[in-house]
């Protein structure tokens, strides 16, 4: 276990479409946290669910003003890390690419295919190169707990699924939708990447509880997706998601055992200490500061 890793849980919730209103938190308070990566999507609200600290951030900001392409994914993950969050649970609306995943059902996503373009997908770069493993982009411990919590809340839950992240903001064409099905993708959304890859770089175990809102546009003879319909279905199910969060808090073990993801950067930074950019290292104080000891 990492010597600096706390043994208590602090869950960061990133709330997607339909969830700008947040989750029920006791002793909720807005906290000011700034990031060298710019402004996060909105206010950071921290509080407790039962005895567990939760911190909430609305991915698209108040009133859903930020499009999937313009979410500052780096700032969002960086501020959660700065707040002391230990694990991140993302709540997202998704389209279904499978007959057996019906609107209203939940999917604990465990794989991603990234079809986004033009988004900043890494905290690292020129002057500080890091290659983390992303083979298993989701924390199975948190994902399984979230799935169980959603079942307890009364949702029909699928315990795995591959999420294709598209750039948007337009929904897919029918040809694209059919293509993603041949790639074995199960659900489609616009925000899971680069969020999941940045969480991994920040050594934050990440899971996504996705709520199916529509069948995208691959089914013969059906209309395309409409955003207002997505939100209608989301609003009908948001209570289940909120209830799942309450139940998750109750089922977390009293002590948080270390996760291998807490050390995701071990061995990943390959730039020689003498060749590292001090300015980038300073920006990465929260994400990777534990690796920048005296001798670096
Ligand atoms: C409102 S429909 C499209 C919108 O919904 C999903 O958002 P999120 O993942 O934040 O729940 C999808 O990714 C799009 O951003
Ligand atoms: N069909 C779809 N495509 C992309 N993002 C979505 N979010 C909800 N439904 C979606």
Report the principal-axis shape: globular
Total number of strands: 11
Structural class label: alpha/beta
Instruction: Domain count, please report it.
Output: 1
CA(first)-CA(last) distance: 22 Å
Tally the helices.
7
What CATH first level would be assigned? Alpha Beta
Radius of gyration using CA atoms only: 19 Å
- Second-tier CATH architecture: 3-Layer(aba) Sandwich
Residue fraction in strands: 15-25%
Query: What is CATH's topology name?
Result: Rossmann fold
Order of helices and strands: EEEEHEEEHEEHEHEHHH
Bound molecules: the ligand CSC[C@H]1O[C@H](OP(=O)(O)O)[C@H](O)[C@@H]1O, adenine
Helix content: 25-40%
Mean pLDDT: 95
CATH superfamily: Nucleoside phosphorylase domain
Low-confidence region ranges: none
Major sheet: 11 strands, mixed
Which short descriptors sum up this protein?
single chain, eleven-stranded mixed β-sheet, alpha/beta, 7 helices, 26% helix, S-methyl-5'-thioadenosine phosphorylase, binds ligand LNRAV4D5, purine salvage, 296 residues, 21% strand, Rossmann fold, binds adenine
Entry summary:
This is S-methyl-5'-thioadenosine phosphorylase. Helices cover 26% and strands 21% of the residues. With 296 residues, it is α/β, with parallel strands linked by helices.
What can you tell me about this protein's structure?
Strands 1, 2, 3, 4, 5, 6, 7, 8, 9, 10 and 11 form an 11-stranded mixed β-sheet that branches. Helices cover 26% and strands 21% of the residues. It is of the alpha/beta class. α2 (140-153) crosses α5 (227-251). It has one domain: 3-Layer(aba) Sandwich (Rossmann fold), CATH 3.40.50. The radius of gyration is 19 Å and the shape is globular. The structure holds ligand LNRAV4D5 and adenine (ADE). Ligand LNRAV4D5 is lined by residues 16-17, 59-60, 68, 92-93, 168, 189-191, 227, 230-231.
């Amino acid at each position: 276990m990492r010597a600096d890793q706390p043994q208590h849980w602090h869950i960061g919730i990133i709330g997607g479409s339909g969830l700008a209103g947040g989750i029920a938190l006791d002793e909720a308070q807005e906290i000011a946290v700034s990031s060298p990566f710019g402004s996060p999507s909105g206010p950071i609200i921290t509080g407790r669910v039962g005895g567990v600290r939760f911190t909430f951030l609305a991915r698209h900001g108040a009133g859903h003003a930020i499009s999937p392409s313009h979410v500052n994914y780096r700032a969002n993950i960086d501020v959660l890390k700065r707040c002391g969050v230990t694990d991140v649970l993302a709540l997202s609306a998704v389209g279904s690419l499978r007959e057996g995943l019906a609107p209203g059902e939940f999917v604990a996503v465990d794989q991603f295919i990234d079809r986004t373009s033009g988004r900043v997908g890494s905290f690292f770069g020129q002057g500080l190169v890091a290659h983390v493993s992303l083979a298993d982009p989701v924390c199975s411990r948190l994902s399984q707990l979230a799935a169980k919590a959603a079942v307890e809340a009364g949702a029909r839950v699928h315990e795995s699924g591959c999420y294709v992240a598209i750039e948007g903001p337009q929904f897919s064409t029918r040809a694209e939708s059919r293509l993603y099905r041949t790639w074995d993708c199960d659900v489609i959304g616009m925000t899971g990447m680069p969020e999941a890859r940045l969480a991994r770089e920040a050594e934050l175990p990440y899971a996504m509880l996705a709520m199916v809102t529509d069948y995208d546009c691959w089914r013969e003879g059906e209309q395309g997706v409409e955003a207002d319909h997505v939100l209608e279905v989301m609003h009908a199910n948001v209570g289940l998601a909120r209830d799942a969060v309450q139940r998750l808090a109750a089922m977390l073990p009293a002590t948080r055992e270390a996760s291998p993801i807490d050390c995701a950067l071990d061995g990943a930074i390959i730039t020689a200490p003498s060749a590292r950019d001090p300015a980038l290292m300073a920006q990465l104080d929260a994400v990777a500061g534990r690796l920048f000891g005296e001798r670096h």
